[in-house]
Amino acid sequence: LIQDILFACEIVKSLGLKVKLPMKAAIDNSGTVFLANGWSIGGRTRHVEVKTNFLREMKETGMFEFQWISTQDKKADVFTKNVGGPEYNRFCEKLCGSDEYYK
Questions:
Q1: In terms of pTM, does the model score above 0.90?
Q2: Using one digit for the tens of pLDDT, what is the confidence trace for 82-101?
Q3: Helix or strand or coil: residue 77?
Q4: Count of beta carbons in the 10 Å neighbourhood of residue 15
Q5: Across-strand partners of 64?
Q6: Is residue 58 classed exposed, middle or buried when 0-12, 13-18 and 19+ CB atoms within 10 A define those classes?
Q7: Angle between helices 2-14 and 49-60 (to 10 degrees)
């Protein structure tokens, strides 16, 4: 995901547009956020060392800011997961706004 965002960022820059840095990555996995921010280093994290170093490098250079977000507040889930009716309506209202004439 981060590499895709970096690619899109380069395309936007090539069009002559400015990109506001740091880009914010809202992640609902607290372990990933801890690893990316450098708060958790242990023997069990050796197998993800390369990815962790890449994320930390992106953070240190000021390209990204990693923050935890609750799963209930993650709007992107409506595009990637099967969500129930009430959640779907809540996400759609947040993303698209509400239609006063539809109700």
A1: no
A2: 888 888 888 888 777 777 77
A3: helix
A4: 7
A5: 23
A6: buried
A7: 40
